Input
Amino acid sequence: MDLKDKKEYIDKIKKLAREKNAVIFAHYYTRPEIQEIADFIGDSLALAQQATRVQADILVMCGVHFMGETMKILCPDKKVLIPDMNAGCSLADSCKAEDLKKFIEDQSQIQGKRPLVVSYVNTSADVKALTDVVVTSSNAKHIVDQLPADAKIIFGPDHNLGSYINSVTGRNMILWNGACHVHSRFSLEALMKLKAENPGVEVLAHPECKAPILAQSDVIGSTKALLEHTIKSSAKRFIIATESGILFEMQRACPDKEFIPVPPEMTEGIGCSCNECEYMRMNTLEKVYSCLLNESPEMTVEKEIAAKAISSINKMLAMS
Ligand code: 13P
Ligand code: SF4
Output
């Protein structure tokens, strides 16, 4: 898209959003031009919290499917649009509700009572409906710390995040074996090389990365926490191990600082060897314009599922 087209789309989107009383939300991993037009940019927790606070008839969620679903569950009376219904999440896909249901039943038998089920927000509404409390990477430690000390806990779907939370809370949660395809393929070899080339430079990593990457990191946190660290810190250079979309907001907030992305493993035959989430990149200006114009695709969540899922999401918001 050339600059003229880009400007035209931005103007048209802003005009339509005003006319339709719509608010545009974007996750930090979306394309720079999407973050530029968004009224609100945030991590998963902030996006969910902000959705409940805005006065609008239409919410446009530029992110992935589970983010639109969470928004719709929290704001059932608003029209929630998502620019591309196919923008999924490999992590959410790694935990199907029917498999989790069976896992809970099996663990209930083994433990003699039903364990508490803690689910990462990167899950479908069906999985949230089976969950006691939802967490995000911003609040997972804080929430797990509040659960009864003797509670048996199932944590899913992200195994890397679950292991990390076990390590910082001293819990022994039973972990689901899911992963994000972007975060689990960062290369330890590349990180060690970057550290050697940039001695003393802090490494910032998202907790969805594998344990060896986290073990080499100085700061571990949600996208928002990593961004805030770069703003607060007096350091001028950072090595970043998370989806590279966040670099846009880091650079915008800190124009005089340098951000060095950790490259992924070069795995043959997986199509994309970049550290980009192809689902997040499905949000384009054309699709944002089209979804606002046509008020479609619209997110819907089955009433029965939404009624169950809302309690685990509200529990998270109350415990955050
Ligand atoms: P955050 O909640 O940290 O923004 O993470 C969302 C996500 O999808 C990470 O891959
Ligand atoms: Fe899902 Fe990974 Fe993309 Fe985040 S980066 S939305 S966890 S696939």
